[in-house]
Amino acid sequence: MFTGIIRAKGRITAMEQRGGDVRLTVRSQGLPWSEFEVGESIAVNGVCLTAVALHDDGFDTDVSNETLDVTALGGLAVGADVNLEPSLALGERLGGHLVSGHVFALASGFRTSMRAMWRKKALSALTGSVLPSMKYRETRSS
Fold first, then answer.
1. 42 Cβ neighbours under 8 A, 6+ residues apart
2. Beta strand 47-55 with 21-27: parallel, antiparallel or unpaired?
3. Contact 47, 67 (CB under 8 A)
4. Residue 106: its pLDDT value, please?
5. Are 6 and 85 in contact (CB under 8 A)?
6. Are residues 22 and 60 in contact, defined by beta-carbon separation less than 8 angstroms?
7. How far is CA 108 from CA 25, 46, 48, 59, 135, in A?
8. pLDDT category of residue 133 using cuts at 50, 70 and 90
9. Is 61 within 8 Å of 54 (Cβ atoms)?
10. Which DSSP string do the residues of the chain spell out, in sequence order?
11. Is the pLDDT of residue 123 over 60?
């Protein structure tokens, strides 16, 4: 789980194709990397990723093609700046919201309207979820 509060800025310094995945190398001076362990979750631009290797100034992570297809990570290139947030530890002060960093659905739409925005708010209230990037397809019944 994450709070959604950015803790550091980082930069993509390498992208290597590995079968169906891409290994990203992220460098940042803003986090105490010596305190991290391989296997920890780190949100990169809000997407939960797993550290597969650690460096003095960052980490490597494997990102699946599916994740690249359904998140903004697919548009990144070497040299891109990213937002970083380590996962929460039990007992830590939240200071934000509880967010998972996982993609649960993908939706698209043709246009935005006040009606669609109110549907989004109603759906969020009913499901207890925050759906900031969902768009709805406007349909008309006769």
1. 26, 36, 48, 49, 50, 51, 59, 61, 84, 85, 86, 87
2. unpaired
3. yes
4. 53
5. yes
6. no
7. 30, 19, 22, 33, 5
8. very low
9. no
10. -B-S---EEEEEEEEEEETTEEEEEEE-SSS-GGG--TT-EEEETTEEEEEEEEETTEEEEEEEHHHHHHSGGGG--TT-EEEEEEPP-TT----S--B----------S---HHHHHHHHHHHHHHT---TT---------
11. no
Choose from 29-38, 63-72, 97-106 the range with maximum mean pLDDT: 29-38
Encoded amino acid at 57, one letter: D
Closest CA to 55 of 42, 36, 41, 73: 36
Q: Which amino acid is at 128?
A: G
Query: Measured over all CA atoms, what is the biggest interatomic distance in the chain, rounded to whole angstroms?
Result: 62
Partner residues linked to 22 by β-bridges: 17, 63
